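Summary of Year 1 activities. Much of the first year was spent building the evaluation harness for sequence design. The harness presents a backbone, in tokenized form, and records the residue chosen at every position. We chose the following record to illustrate the format because it has been used consistently in internal testing since the harness was completed.
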């Protein structure tokens, strides 16, 4: 349906509103601003403990999306979906984190450059992983790098790359009539954080936080951790504000499509790297006076990251068939931009994951597929005997270290039945089902509850049919291919077996104290929730 819809939308909706705006060029420049690990916490979403005036301005003067999701909540696969317009299960190796990106899948950054656009980026484009062409040369997935300008960061954990100054440097060389596209890829609010920086440097208070998700303990340390995350979000937003000011100064603002989002949700247990509301729901706002009608609207329909590539090619006036990109399952947001009542409004999104990190036997992932509707979320876990956060004896490597993670692990060592640990790190059943109305934090699994079985079965049926239609190897009995694709960091291939044999191995994202001294009981049943 989505594929059909893009053909219709790209063919039929390019005129009308664009004609009304004939005074400005109808092909805008593009500023694509993507934070790293930011959940929808912003003023425009009603969050009081994160100040995001730049994001809020884009929302107020453009569109803010209340139901935007990445199909896969980890850096590399999420960015692969964004760039290609395909779900991660349609991307072979690129379904995995730290992979070898298949040469057969091209992204819109490369297409724009081929079509004569000036394309650049700062800090983090697609990755982490390896993307090379047939000659072994690094692919320019998001154009040329602009990282020369540096500044003293607010904390040692924040990038010293001065993103906004590098955008100015990019604009300085983007002369003439060539349209340009700049990818602002911050590495905030990715961990690590300077503990207490949100309070000490951001002027925040523990009491500012109005809600701690029910899967974590609610205490001062967890709240401090959340405020440190908030402080890093604000760093991202500060640079966005400077970029907007630079565009205004150059009289370029109104003919620039600005898209602001994040690759996936916050880097906390049961969030980033999982398949849940906390993991896959992302902030999204867009501003483009030349192409967006009735600004200030809130968009309630479901948007997936696979819709971004068709949207960008559409506004760039590049027909998909001329891009040599593999077919997309997404659809252009042109109908949303023009506020068309006859547009195809999506009632759900599909999500899923494979190997989002190392730390299980045989480099196995934690394969999951899911569907999210306005009612709730249904998940199918294909290997429920595996550990969702990674094996305990190798530090739960599928969850970035941090105060909240360490606290939950310590609590579980003292109290083996600890609920937070069970929810964040314990084994999960083969099916999970949560209803938003009664359980917004999604911690009460209703998969075996008869009362809701009809809704769950309908959602499962829709999900399985679409995945089958999209050629998902998990639907064809070939899901093992994802575990067999090689990890692109040779030093970490076979991590679990090498570590267990006594090899001294380190990762940059988990503390030695996160490793359990012994494997936990392997015979226990999947956690009942
Ligand atoms: Ca990320």
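For this record, the design step produced the sequence shown next.
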């Amino acid at each position: 349906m989505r594929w059909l819809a893009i053909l219709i939308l790209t063919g039929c909706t390019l005129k009308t509103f664009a004609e009304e705006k004939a005074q400005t060029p109808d092909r805008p420049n593009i500023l694509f601003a993507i934070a790293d690990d930011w959940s929808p916490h912003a003023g425009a979403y009603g969050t009081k403990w994160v100040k995001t005036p730049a994001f809020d301005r884009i929302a107020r003067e453009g569109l803010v999306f209340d139901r935007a999701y990445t199909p896969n909540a980890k850096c590399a696969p999420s960015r692969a979906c964004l760039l290609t317009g395909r779900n991660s299960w349609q991307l072979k190796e690129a379904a995995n984190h730290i992979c070898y990106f298949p040469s057969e899948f091209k992204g819109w950054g490369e297409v724009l450059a081929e079509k004569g656009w000036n394309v650049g980026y700062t800090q983090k484009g697609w990755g982490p992983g390896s993307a090379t062409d047939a000659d072994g040369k690094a692919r320019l997935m998001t154009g040329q790098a602009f990282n020369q300008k540096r500044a003293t960061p607010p904390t040692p954990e924040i990038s010293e790359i001065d993103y906004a100054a590098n955008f100015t440097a990019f604009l300085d060389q983007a002369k003439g009539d060539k349209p340009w596209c700049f990818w602002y890829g911050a590495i905030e609010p990715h961990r690590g954080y300077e503990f207490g920086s949100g309070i000490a440097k951001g002027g925040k208070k523990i009491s500012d936080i109005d809600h701690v998700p029910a899967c974590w303990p609610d205490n001062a340390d967890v709240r401090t951790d959340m405020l440190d995350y908030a402080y890093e979000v604000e760093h991202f937003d500060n640079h966005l504000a400077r970029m907007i000011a630079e565009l205004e100064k150059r009289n370029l603002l109104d003919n620039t499509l600005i898209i602001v989002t994040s690759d996936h949700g916050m880097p906390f247990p049961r969030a980033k790297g999982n398949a849940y509301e906390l993991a896959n729901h992302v902030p999204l706002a867009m501003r483009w006076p030349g192409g967006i009608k009735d600004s200030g609207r809130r968009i309630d329909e479901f948007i997936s990251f696979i819709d971004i590539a068709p949207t960008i090619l559409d506004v760039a006036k590049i027909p998909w068939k001329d891009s040599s990109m593999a077919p997309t399952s997404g659809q252009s947001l042109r109908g949303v931009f023009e506020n068309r009542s006859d547009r195809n409004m999506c009632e759900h999104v599909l999500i899923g994951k494979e190997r989002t990190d190392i730390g299980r036997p045989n480099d196995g992932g934690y394969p999951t597929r899911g569907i999210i509707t306005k009612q709730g979320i249904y998940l199918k876990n294909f290997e429920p005997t595996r550990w969702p956060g990674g094996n305990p004896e190798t530090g739960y490597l599928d969850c970035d270290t941090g105060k909240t993670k360490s606290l939950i692990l310590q609590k579980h060592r003292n109290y083996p039945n600890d609920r937070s640990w069970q929810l964040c790190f314990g084994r999960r059943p083969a099916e999970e089902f949560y209803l938003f109305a009664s359980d917004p934090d999604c911690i009460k699994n209703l998969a075996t509850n008869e009362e809701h079985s009809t809704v769950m079965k309908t959602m499962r049926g829709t999900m399985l049919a679409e995945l089958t239609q999209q050629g998902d190897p998990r639907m064809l009995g070939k899901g093992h291919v994802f575990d067999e694709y090689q990890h692109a960091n040779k030093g970490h291939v076979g991590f679990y077996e090498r570590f267990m044999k006594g090899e001294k191995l380190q990762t940059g994202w988990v503390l030695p104290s996160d490793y359990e001294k012994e494997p936990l009981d392997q015979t226990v049943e999947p956690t009942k929730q």
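The CA atoms of residues 210 and 390 lie 31 Å apart. Quantitative recovery figures across the full test set are reported in Table 2.
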